[in-house]
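Practice problem 4.
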């Protein structure tokens, strides 16, 4: 019998299923319609590939005792249900295609209900239909999940292997792919999960006739779709969907339908939506109008922040010294890019304070990623960081790039354990670390970064220890020889080398390793994916995604040089004071109370075990602790305003990462793309890019047309004489999300957030 480990070792992503006790699902709903098939968490579609340790822990906890599900992305499973004519349809499918699919498959499972799951591997290039009208009782699953072999079925039987193992999958036959291929538009529209008007549903039902070909399950599914699409108000639409020639409903059937209709209100992990009805109608000739009704609410992040901080936080104006550094960057920039200034300010303050800490965090280093258009002004904050570092005798600790993991180690030694990498075009570094063709010294860099940035004691491997010890001993010998020859003022250098030698022998305690990376949307956005944020370096970085618009050169409004000099002088002095202090910084009671609220929020199950970004949330509290402590360096006491700002900054990073995940899912999602996802991402894109002074209509449309998913919908809408970009913008103005500013004889749309 195959088991969960066979699937995991073959690359399948595993999802947990609610156990059933005394005939009731552990989800808590007594009328649950998905016994032994109900995923335990929302967002199961984004379940990561668990590590071996995570799998072992879940197995020990008993999560797989009754069964498990497997996501079928990158696969295709023919799911045969004999109760609805699946056996006859399968014979017909084999005859029509000339293929015995069970024979062709390397892995087949007999389901507990008497059906079969026939597995194939499949690399999605085009969306595929989930079922075909000519083959009732068969689902063709290229998305979603199936219950794994070895699991219990509601019948009391188990899913048992018929042949093969999950690692013996064969490719999906081309004839079947050709049969299932459909256009992106149909896939997107059939996945609509919103509501529909009574007229729209009647139009759909006029194409999808309730004749003898409609099975009981399809009849129920239609009812569920209408229920969800009308918020439970469309019973008459369902009850009126009768077979040709059928008279009025009997009292008994009316009561049965009433009961069934009420049961549709129960919670389910994978609800049947109005998109199901759309899809069924489209298969019979219905064409869905292409319109835009976005349902994204941009203020969700702000609401979370406000609920904890109890105050409005301006991310462009951090408190204290960090705010002064931002003003210096703003006053000296040829082209403004203010979103990146706070991150740079935090880095320079952090670099000056490797010996400072609080009760809750001993390390004040940061890993950050700033994303902005090329030639948008990223060099401004980078230059200020280098200038201020040099004026505080820390220039040796700032590096512009690195070529190998050994270079990281050498820099750590030569900078006495304090390093900041200010790397432009950081995507090249990520690409070299992830490349299958990377040399060993490149592929080890990510591990070295993660170790140096998190360990409390960095110890050297034997080869590096011997190599560096030999170099330092040789240097000490040369200096001692010069001292013996009468040269003065060399003892300090000898002492420094002896100190380094001690670190090499015993290890560097709490090395300060920070990375301030910058890149462009074209080069880095695609790397923000589930795998990289879940386990790699990107998942440990604070991310700032700037809008896709270059500010104008504004030389006339630059700060006067005399004022620049004075501000810079004050900042250098303050940084010097930070550098001269070390030790623990106290936390005020008000700040501690807000920190406790942040911890409670991040440790809530909804965040901590979020299927898509739970790994990010798990690290957020540490980020809040670090940022608030860095902001406090100027006054040596962590105050509530520092925690408020830190929490808002971390939440903004989560929002940016979530936005990029959605953007990439649209670019690469294939069959899993939903129309509502395109709508929500488009609205989010407009809001993000219309902050501040706003954007003219032509620029907004250019930005909207960049993702291929939106372009596809726009092309389809154009055939119907519609401009969905304009529809979206008009809708956002009507809803108060955008404001049209017509002052100065120019029309610009501004975000109303």
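Answer key:
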């Amino acid at each position: 019998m195959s088991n969960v480990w066979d699937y995991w070792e073959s690359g399948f992503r595993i999802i947990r299923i609610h156990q059933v006790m005394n005939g009731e699902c552990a989800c808590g709903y007594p009328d649950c319609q998905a016994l032994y098939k109900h995923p335990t968490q929302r967002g199961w579609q984004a379940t990561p590939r668990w590590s071996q340790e995570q799998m072992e822990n879940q197995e020990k906890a008993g999560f797989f005792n009754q069964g498990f599900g497997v996501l079928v992305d990158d696969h295709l499973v023919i799911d045969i249900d004999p109760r609805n004519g699946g056996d006859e349809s399968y014979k017909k499918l084999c005859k029509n295609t000339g293929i015995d699919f069970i024979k062709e498959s390397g892995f087949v499972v007999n389901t507990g209900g008497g059906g079969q799951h026939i597995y194939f591997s499949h690399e999605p290039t085009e969306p595929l239909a989930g079922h075909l009208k000519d083959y009732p009782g068969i689902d063709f699953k290229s998305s979603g999940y199936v219950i794994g072999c070895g699991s219990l079925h509601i019948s009391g039987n188990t899913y048992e292997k018929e042949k093969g193992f999950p690692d013996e999958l064969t490719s999906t036959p081309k004839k079947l792919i050709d049969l299932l291929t459909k256009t992106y538009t149909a896939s997107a529209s059939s996945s609509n999960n919103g509501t529909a008007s009574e007229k729209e549903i009647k139009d759909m039902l006029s194409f999808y006739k309730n004749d003898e070909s409609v099975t009981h399950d399809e009849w129920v599914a239609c009812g569920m779709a209408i229920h969800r699409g009308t918020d439970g108000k469309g019973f008459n639409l369902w009850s009126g969907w009768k077979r040709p020639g059928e008279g009025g409903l009997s009292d008994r059937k009316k009561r049965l339908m009433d009961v069934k209709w009420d049961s549709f209100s129960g919670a389910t992990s994978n609800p049947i939506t109005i998109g199901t009805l759309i899809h069924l109608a489209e298969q019979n000739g219905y064409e869905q109008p292409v319109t835009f009704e976005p349902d994204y609410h941009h203020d969700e992040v702000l609401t979370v922040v406000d609920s904890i901080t109890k105050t409005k936080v301006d991310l462009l104006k951090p408190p204290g010294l960090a705010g002064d550094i931002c003003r210096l960057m703003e006053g000296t920039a040829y082209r403004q890019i203010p979103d990146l200034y706070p991150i740079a300010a935090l880095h320079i303050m952090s670099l000056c304070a490797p010996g400072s800490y609080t009760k809750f965090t001993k390390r004040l280093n940061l890993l950050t990623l700033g994303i902005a258009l090329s030639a948008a002004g990223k060099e401004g904050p980078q230059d200020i960081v280098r200038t201020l570092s040099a004026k505080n005798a820390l220039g040796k600790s700032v590096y512009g790039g690195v070529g190998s993991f050994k270079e990281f180690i050498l820099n750590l030694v030569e900078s006495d354990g304090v390093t900041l990498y200010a790397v432009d075009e950081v995507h090249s570094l990520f690409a070299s670390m992830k490349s299958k063709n990377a040399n060993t010294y490149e592929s080890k860099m990510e591990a070295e970064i993660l170790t140096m940035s998190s360990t409390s004691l960095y110890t050297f491997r034997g080869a590096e220890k011997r190599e560096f010890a030999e170099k330092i001993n040789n240097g000490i010998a040369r200096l001692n020889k010069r001292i013996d020859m009468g040269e003065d003022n060399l003892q300090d250098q000898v002492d420094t080398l002896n100190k380094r030698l001690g670190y090499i022998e015993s290890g560097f305690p709490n090395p300060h390793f920070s990375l301030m990376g910058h890149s462009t949307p074209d080069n880095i956005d695609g790397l923000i994916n589930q795998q990289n944020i879940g386990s790699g370096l990107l998942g440990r970085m604070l991310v700032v995604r700037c809008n896709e618009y270059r500010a104008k050169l504004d030389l006339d409004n630059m700060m006067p040089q005399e004022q620049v000099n004075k501000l810079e002088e004050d900042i250098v002095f303050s940084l010097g004071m930070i550098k001269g202090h070390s030790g623990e910084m106290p936390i005020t009671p008000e700040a501690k109370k807000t920190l406790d609220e942040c911890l409670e929020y991040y440790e809530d199950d909804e965040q901590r075990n979020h299927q898509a970004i739970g790994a990010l949330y798990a690290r957020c509290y540490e980020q809040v602790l670090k940022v608030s402590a860095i902001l406090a360096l100027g006054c040596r006491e962590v105050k509530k305003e520092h925690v408020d700002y830190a929490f808002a900054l971390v939440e903004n990073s989560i929002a940016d990462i979530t936005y990029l995940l959605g953007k990439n899912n649209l670019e690469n999602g294939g069959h899993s793309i939903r129309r509502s996802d395109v709508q929500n991402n488009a609205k989010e894109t407009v809001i993000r890019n219309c902050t501040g002074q706003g954007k003219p209509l032509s620029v907004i449309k250019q930005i909207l047309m960049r993702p291929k998913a939106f372009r596809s919908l726009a092309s389809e809408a154009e055939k119907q004489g519609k401009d969905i970009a304009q529809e979206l913008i008009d809708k956002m103005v009507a809803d108060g999300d955008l404001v049209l500013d017509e002052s100065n004889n120019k029309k610009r749309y501004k975000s109303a957030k």
